[in-house]
Amino acid sequence: MVPVDEFKAIKVRVTECLHLASAHFGETFPEIPVKFDLTGKVGGYFCVHTCRTTGKVSKYFRFNRVLVRENLNEYVEQICPHEVAHYIALSKWGRGIMPHGVEWKSVMVDVFNLAPDRCHAMNTSGVENIPFVYRCDCQEHRVSKRKHNKMLRGGKYRCNTCRKLIVFVREDAAIDKNINVIPKLFVSTADAPLSEAHIRQIAGMIIEHQVLALVGDPLMTSDSNLQQLAKTLKVSAAAVARHSNTNTLPGGVTHAIIFGDRQIERQQRVATAFEQRGVIVRKVRAEKA
């Protein structure tokens, strides 16, 4: 249900690579933020940003959350060391070096014992989005937004088969192949109020998932907070409810998030009962606000 474990694996691997480099060079390389905000076909990126007003330099890693979920082994084995090697090379030899020069290659080979491959070999078909449909005399053509915009500005493209100009027909609704659907999500904080901290934590656990229906534990007394969670998860208000019977479980639940900070035995029974029904259950503790 939740890609959080995969994100954690990436952060752990980055830390391991930093420790390997520290042991090799006999100096400490501080940990820097790890973000999962890249899109498209780019797998990872080591960023250095200098603020124009303050001159403050910030460094961080960026990874593609969709590709992480679909290619975790590739990330752990190659991409994380690749990006960490950029960080180490910059820290050791400064900005005057080439991005994939001898310094970076030496870190990949001598520190991580890996081939210094510049590009990843992951399947990126899942992140491609080509919703614009064009037509020539012999077939339909699907065109990316970038090429579509070029043609709006006067660019012309011909079919490689019939050699006729392709003409815009329609734009299909974008279908995000990377979104996993949760048909019905059950959330329980026992008798604790559903707080903003809970909502943020739940939203973070189901990144890249689309929730179709949401049901709350009957012990959770605040309907307004449940509606706020629904709004955060982009669930229709008509598909939100609080289960009415404290002695039964709601039907049709496919996924459940159970907070075990209060009424621990009761929460464990609820989680076990759902698991016996084949529900995917995530048992967690609330993060501090």
UniProtKB/TrEMBL annotation:
GO terms for biological process: response to stress. Residues 12-169 form the SprT-like domain. Pfam families: SprT-like. It comes from the Bacteria. PANTHER family: PROTEIN SPRT (PTHR38773:SF1). This is Protein SprT. It comes from Pseudomonas fluorescens. The lineage of its organism: Bacteria, Pseudomonadati, Pseudomonadota, Gammaproteobacteria, Pseudomonadales. The gene is sprT_2.
